[in-house]
Amino acid sequence: ICLIAHVTATTMPHEDAECRKGSAPNIHDPATRGLSVVVPSYNEENRLPLMMDEALDYLEKRQKQDPSFTYEVIVVNDGSKDQTAKVAEEYCKKYGSDKVRVISLERNRGKGGAVRTGVFSSRGKTILMADADGATKFADIEKVEEGLKNLRPWPEGMAISCGSRAHLEKDSIAKRSYFRTLLMYGFHFLVWFLCVKEIRDTQCGFKLLTREAALQTFSNLHIERW
């Protein structure tokens, strides 16, 4: 079973023909940007502007301070039924298609499929997953960059740095109902018990990957949903 999974994963097509018009960059190509930010978005017309304003303000200031720093933001519209694509395209017009790109999927594939589509179209040496709801302050990318740096030497260039909001858990619990808090702890226990024991906050959507790690990780992704 493992052998079949490996073979089918590495031979999966890395192009989503239905979501692009014309040719697009590919993760198999050499990196031409310092950072790619992949933003999966489903019905996010209201929250996306706040996140994009904060992210692009930070990225533009950083580029002015360090002209060698280059970036791109890839908004993956995951078959939204609202005006998410239109909102994202406004940023493309404002900052230029070289810095902001919009990929629209014809049907909803789920967060996994949306992130994978953005990753396979990225041009960055490092690739950041960032949620459209802006739950994580974008300037905190410096913390995950430091975490990635501290992992050196990277085996075959592969490393992943995961953001975490676990230290804010007490504040968030105060705003939740008892039932939701119980569900949260139950879900966290199942994830810890059945899947991942080394990462405390698996649900934080703020993760930084080297290009090599992103290729290996998303080439082996079979489940595209949440």
From TrEMBL:
Subcellular localization is given as: Endoplasmic reticulum membrane
Coiled coil regions, renumbered to chain: none
One Pfam family of this chain: Glycos_transf_2
What keywords are annotated for this sequence in UniProt?
A: Endoplasmic reticulum, Glycosyltransferase, Membrane, Signal-anchor, Transferase, Transmembrane, Transmembrane helix
Pathway assigned in UniProt: Protein modification; protein glycosylation
Give the superkingdom in one word.
Eukaryota
Listed GO molecular functions?
Answer: dolichyl-phosphate beta-glucosyltransferase activity
Family from the record:
Belongs to the glycosyltransferase 2 family.
Spell out the GO cellular component terms annotated for this protein, sorted alphabetically and separated by semicolons.
endoplasmic reticulum membrane
UniProt keyword annotation of Transmembrane present: yes
The Glycosyltransferase 2-like domain covers 36-213
Q: Is Transmembrane one of the keywords?
A: yes
Name it: dolichyl-phosphate beta-glucosyltransferase
**GO BP annotations, alphabetical order:** protein N-linked glycosylation
How does the protein's chain sit in the membrane according to the entry? Single-pass membrane protein
Enzyme class, first EC level, given as a word: transferase
The EC number of this protein is 2.4.1.117
As recorded in Swiss-Prot or TrEMBL, the protein's gene is named Alg5
The protein's annotated catalytic reaction(s) are: a di-trans,poly-cis-dolichyl phosphate + UDP-alpha-D-glucose = a di-trans,poly-cis-dolichyl beta-D-glucosyl phosphate + UDP
